[in-house]
Amino acid sequence: MLKTIKSLRNAESGMAIVEFALVLPAMLALVFGAIEVTDALICKADISNTASTAADLVAQESQVSTTDMNNIFSALGSLIYPFPTASATIVITSVIDDGHGGGVVDWSKAYNGTARAQGSAVTIPTGLLTTGGSVVLSEVTYTYTPLSSVMVRFPITMSNQFYSHPRRVAQIKWISG
Prior knowledge:
The protein is of the alpha+beta class. It is built from three helices and seven strands. The protein has helices at residues 2-10, 15-59, 66-80, and strands at residues 63-64, 88-97, 103-111, 121-122, 134-144, 156-164, 173-174. β2 (88-97) and β3 (103-111) form a beta hairpin. α2 (15-59) runs antiparallel to α3.
């Protein structure tokens, strides 16, 4: 009996397979977790980039129209690629000085969402809006759904907003057409 116990204690065949089987779930969790976290961080960076680009594209103009906004929204959709644009909401708003140190909506347009109401008050960071001036506010919201859902099993809502001053005029005008 003692001889059998001693031989079992010294046996090493199959030990590597048992150790591998014990470590495999943790290794897979780390790999898939790293992939999902990296994918989410790339999406967050794309959302931030989309917000700043939206405000910048509009701020370069003197006036914008429906055609211009459709072109801008189309270009912004390509910035979100390879993530589906159906989960993105983009709102671009021209906020003008209300004469009392605050801001009101001059015009607002949205992609996959609701634009801000014209004339509604908007809280702008102190010192950003000058007397008689305006800022372009872009707001991007995205519901990120992980591709594999191995580690993250629920959608994550990401959002970003960006302000930009018009470059050519004090206030960017909305024109029909």
